[in-house]
Here is the input.
Amino acid sequence: MTNAEKALDFVADGMTVGLGSGHAAEAFIRALAASGRQVRGVPTSAASAALASHLGIPLTTLDDVTHLDVTVDGADEVDPHLNLIKGYGHAHVREKVVAAASKKLVILVGPEHVADKVVPVLGTRGKLPVEVLPFALGFCRRQLDALGLPPLPGEPPVSDNGNPILECRTGPIADPAGLELRLRAIPGVVGTGLFVGMASAVLVQSGDTVDVRTGGA
Here is the structure.
């Protein structure tokens, strides 16, 4: 069994399901379509929307539902408390909105990524994405640099929202919740890749075995 298949244990007919972005989420979307479960999906990116539509999963929006039952997504880092860094795929702001609207957030970590994504402390991989308004790009660069999070040089990638994403160099983050508050207090910051206390379960696959880790939210 794969972790994408195991995630189907959290999904029942009639649910509204958040559809994450990236390789792990793509595997789940395919497993969900193959399962035949009668659900509606809220995608977090244009790519996820296109795949779900192609596979016949009906889509809806946050304008039309009061909540989501569960969201299934991937992550770039997972710490022992199930805190996350997301956003290497540049969809973390929409992913965070959908996750916050969900009763449960289920995160998938595949066997090829366990060694680098399951970390002792957030920041281990050395990068934290921060989405900012185009108007505030230069200002936010300087503010992040002053906080010890220097953005990588060059033209930043752009999210589906049309905003630049500053990929900040970081070391181990001792206080993820505190850092999130400091970053969100910078005018022009739209959202960060820190997902603190949001995950309900992390499904870590090793071979044909899936370890279900619970805690966090």
Summary: The chain has a mean pLDDT of 96. The longest helix spans residues 23-35. The two ends are 25 Å apart (CA to CA). The longest strand covers residues 127-132.
